[in-house]
Design a protein that fits this description.
disordered N terminus; Rossmann fold; 249 residues; 2 domains; 8 helices
Length: 249
């Protein structure tokens, strides 16, 4: 399912504000240095914040996104001329060109069908140099997200970048599957300063740790680390995240 986030300039304008926060951003910056990557691909780069930061730190940064509206913002931000921008998907990354591919912002969950996920992993494997790495995060499914993602628990008011304030929240409309592996569709709501109400629907796949490990093995990756939080603590029953570092075999 396509998302209004990527298609409506009014929604794109609030994207950076709603997605503010450095925990994942700083985590992946440190990881890029630790694996001694030279060329880093941000797959699903959105408005380009991470790719620009990579480029400022001396990495050869490549931002890839299927949404033209997102890349329009990326190109025009300060230092937006430093990274290479690709309007497309993992299939458009040159073969053997990357030392590290990062999918942050829970991009991995947007590949709902198993075949789409397997195809993406295969394309990432092709794009990586020998011994290159893939890093991403996915939410641990058995943390009762449908009960946690309600208007009561998610509504928040932000300052709009063009002035005034806007309010945003999310609501679950459908869940299909089991507590350990399911597909969930939610609708995001945004009330803009001028009174406009926007809605965008997103469908996400919550894969179990076993499913993630199996899919990576089948695609030619070896899992080197799997953490449960951005502080690199191990995965436990109370962890919200499954944060993966895998190496191309």
């Amino acid at each position: 399912m396509s998302s209004l986030w990527t298609e409506d300039p009014r929604a794109v304008a609030t994207y950076d504000t709603e997605c503010a926060g450095r925990h994942d951003h700083d985590f992946y910056l440190a990881l890029a240095a630790e694996v001694r990557a030279r060329t880093v691909v941000d797959l699903g780069c959105g408005t380009g914040v991470f790719a620009v930061d990579l480029a400022r730190r001396g990495f050869q940064a490549v931002g890839v996104d299927p949404a033209a509206a997102m890349l329009d913002v990326a190109r025009t931000r300060e230092d937006g001329d430093l990274p290479t921008w690709i309007h497309g998907t993992a299939a458009d990354i040159p073969s053997g060109s990357a030392d590290l591919v990062v999918m942050m912002g829970h991009v991995a969950q947007y590949f709902v069908e198993d075949q789409a996920w397997a195809t993406t992993l295969a394309q990432v494997h092709r794009a990586l140099a020998d011994g290159g790495h893939l890093a991403f995060e996915s939410r641990q499914p058995d943390r009762d997200w449908p009960a946690r993602w309600t208007r009561e628990h998610t509504e928040i008011t932000h300052e709009h970048p063009d002035g005034g304030v806007f309010t945003a929240w999310g609501e679950i409309v459908e869940v299909v599957g089991t507590p350990s592996s399911f597909v969930e569709t939610h609708v995001g709501h945004t009330d803009l300063p001028d009174g406009t109400h926007l809605e965008h629907a997103e469908t996400l796949r919550f894969r179990s740790e076993d499913e993630i490990r199996t899919s990576l093995h089948e695609a030619g990756f070896a899992v080197e680390n799997l953490w449960g939080d951005w502080d690199r603590s191990p995965v436990t029953a109370t962890s919200d995240e499954l944060i993966v570092l895998a190496r191309r075999r």
